[in-house]
Design goal:
single chain; alpha/beta; Aspartate Aminotransferase, domain 2; Aspartate Aminotransferase, domain 1; 2 domains; seven-stranded mixed β-sheet; four-stranded antiparallel β-sheet; 11 strands; 37% helix; 15% strand; globular
Length: 360
């Protein structure tokens, strides 16, 4: 397969799409009387402006994100969580009942779910037992899947989660670059947990690899999971198309304001990330001393993947004590594993003490 342009990789109807133009897209100046968007002039929420539609282009939030997070200006689109960005990307590039996506398994389960929702096929490249890239296998798979063509269906997208969920490990940047260069479709690198890792971001590869998309979120290190703010970073052609496909008012004004407020506390967030890393290491050491814990996998995220002898029994006994962890034993490549989020020191000690008391 030759190198297709980004436009050629898009679904034809999306490449030629004329987007919906909302009232707030058409007017961006200053006014005192707003009679253009069929809003209710009453504000029942105490003068907070909740009766007005939010900025559909998220201009103030984008400006703050580029300033605080160091992301390239003009190459950012904001979504209702990273999940919306994943769904939008699949809808842009993958033709239903024809195209496929490629996953590095085990990985974040939403990629496959959104592919299924959009009637798009899914192929898997299994990671090694230690969750590292199987480079020879990946090279072979890229060679095989690159032979499709847009007219007859092809593997349009490759998703790489780094640090990976559920395993917690990061992939070396040179390996990500190698795979993204070999794969002729769109490579999406999901960096939801990047702040907890000491590995460099794939954002540095954007100039070199135009078919690359990087995902970020404010749900993890920025502690805004309830607000739902996801970020996609890519070249202008992909970003412009994502703006056309996303819902006109996909992020509420309340969410935009809260995100800006939290981004003003970047120094505090960075200190908290350091504390979470330290606590992650402490919890890992304590877990390794428990008799039924077989392996604690290295992690660059805010969680640990742990292999135990009886994952179902462990989760149930902890649940009865009001402690919830995630059973990942049924996930491809994670037999016997549970995933433990790093909480506060008190929460972590409650879990560790409960696990230490259990014997079977």
């Amino acid at each position: 397969m030759s190198d297709y342009t980004i436009r050629e990789l898009m679904r034809p109807n999306i490449a030629s799409l004329v987007p919906y133009s909302s009232a707030r897209n058409e007017f961006t100046g200053v006014a005192n009387v707003f009679l253009d968007a069929n809003e209710n002039w009453r504000d029942y929420a105490g003068g907070r402006g909740l009766n007005r539609y939010p900025d559909p282009q998220h201009r103030a939030l984008k400006k703050k994100i580029t300033e605080v997070m160091g992301l390239p200006e003009g190459k950012v689109v904001i979504g209702n969580g990273s999940d919306e960005m994943i769904d939008v990307l699949i809808r842009i590039f993958c033709c239903p009942r024809k195209d496929k996506i490629l996953l590095m398994s085990p990985t974040y389960g939403a990629y496959e779910v959104f592919a299924n929702i959009n009637d798009v096929g899914v192929s898997h490249c299994q990671l090694r037992d230690d969750f590292s890239f199987d480079v020879p296998r990946m090279e072979t798979i890229c060679h095989l899947v690159n032979n499709g063509a847009p007219a007859t269906g092809m593997h349009k997208m490759l998703f790489i989660c780094s640090p990976n969920n559920p395993s917690g490990n990061s992939f070396p940047l040179e390996q990500i670059a190698m795979v993204a260069n070999r794969f002729k479709g769109i490579t999406v690198v999901d960096e939801a947990y990047i702040e907890f890792s000491e590995h460099p971001s794939a954002v540095s590869l954007l100039e070199e690899i135009p078919r690359l998309v990087i995902l970020r979120t404010l749900s993890k290190s920025w502690a805004l999971a309830n607000v739902r703010v996801g970020i996609a970073i890519a070249n202008h052609e992909i970003i412009d198309t994502m703006h056309k496909v996303k819902y006109p008012y996909n992020l509420s004004g309340v969410a935009q304001e809260l995100a800006i407020e939290v981004l003003d506390h970047a120094d505090e967030v960075k200190r908290q990330v350091v504390e979470i890393r330290q606590e992650r290491n402490r919890v890992a050491q304590r877990l390794q001393a428990i008799s039924y814990v077989e392996q604690v996998f290295p992690s660059d995220a805010n969680f640990l993947l742990v292999r135990v002898t009886e994952p179902d029994l462990l989760c149930e006994r902890l649940r009865l004590q009001g402690i919830i962890i995630r059973n990942r034993s049924t996930v491809r490549g994670c037999l016997g594993c549970v995933r433990i989020t790093i909480g506060s020191r008190t929460e972590n000690d409650t879990l560790l003490d409960a696990m230490a008391r259990m014997e079977w």
